[in-house]
Amino acid sequence: MDTTGWINVSETEWRYPPRGDMRVPALLYATADLIADMDDKVQAQMINVATLPGIVAGSYAMPDAHWGYGFPIGGVAAFAPEEGGVISAGGVGFDISCGVRTLLSGLTRSDVEPVKEKLADALAARIPAGVGSIGALHLDDGEMENMLLGGAGWAVKRGYGTEADLERTEELGIMAGAMPENVSARARRRQQDEMGTLGSGNHYLELQRVAAIYDASAADAFGLGLDDIAVSIHCGSRGLGHQIGTEFLAKMAVTAGQHGIVLPDRELACAPLNSDIGQQYLGAMRAAVNCALANRQIITHLVRSVFADVLPKAQLKLLYDVSHNTCKEERHLVDGVERRLFVHRKGATRAFGPGHPDLPAELRDVGQPVLIGGSMGTQSYILAGVGNAESERAFSSACHGAGRRMSRHQALKQWRGQAVVEELAARGILIRSPSWRGVAEEAPGAYKDVGAVVDAADHAGLARKVARLEPLVCVKG
Q1: How far apart are CA 183 and CA 176, in angstroms?
Q2: I want to staple 470 with a disulfide (CB 3.0 to 4.6 A). Which of 47, 211, 213, 327 is the partner?
Q3: For 163-214, what is each residue's pLDDT tens digit?
Q4: Which residues does the annotation mark as catalytic?
């Protein structure tokens, strides 16, 4: 990305002052090397977002930013409803509430290595993955309604996990304000048989070992020790969320002009938060958040059942579950005044700092676990939120992963799935996937260096590094 016109505030902070129709500046947290790997469309999309009504403080992008639909992936923007602020389906994304959940096993690498192949095969057999994958659970109309209202809480009541899981889940596992009546029949049909499935693309289930500790006190509070085994789950609201995004983007594009909104890009389709369509989307999106939380909760149960068969001494306690494609109502200080805002995070993770009342009591002194997934075959990271009510960056947000540096089409030209699997196996990383094509599209080389992304987030004060995790087994769609 060309940085002409940007002010280099620090090694990891860049500012583009308001010009033309921009209402706020664009603020990018990244090193010069990471920016050089970004598409020029990142800048264009950040500037476009800065023109939207009711935007507050800035149009932000994280170190892993890349081109997305309307908003850049890695984009953060907050809107004030009292100032005509909008909600954008493109600012949330199609995979509503895609997120990461990390479980701590109580095992070490020496426990797992003798049965690694068996675990890999069992996880792949028990947890459906891939395009159109379906699970063992079929939801009738009543159960669909209950799931969309109850989220992970509904799943726990059905026997998929425990109340303790909810305490370590964003929103305590249940997104308030869901309106299932705004979820179409088609979206519901797409989800009837998809609960407890990973889906495709960059979604995965990964068996990982803690390879490095950067902050001993935070790691201790999180329950992380060197060479410990963790399990991370990365997926979202599957077909239901995608359908909601598709439908409301079309509706918002048609009605934007009726609300006096001039869209610099049709993909930025949005609606005033206080409008009928804005409220309808908000309710449907919250229902999709519940779908994603329930989905990850069911997968957690399936993972535990596999370990119960193969390594019964495993504990598999939930460290945390956090989403990175949402719009949340939150309170933040802006110019010293607390404001009620609707914060869009698209490919960006909530990162509340120490003392935040929404964190579990046992984590409140440390800050929220920020779970950063790597690309297949590369390391992942656990960070901790650092902001507080008086000092926060990008509305207490951080990066969410490595970020693509080339398209899936480009990746297919460069890699073959079988070769990628064989190369990773030679490094001791077992891949299980129903699709060679999917593996090629998600080849590690198609992504930025997640270590550089995390270092930039740490240096910029978005979150602080706690631990690095390396993969042993990866189940991919």
Answers
A1: 15
A2: 211
A3: 999 999 999 999 999 999 999 999 999 999 999 999 888 899 999 999 999 9
A4: 400
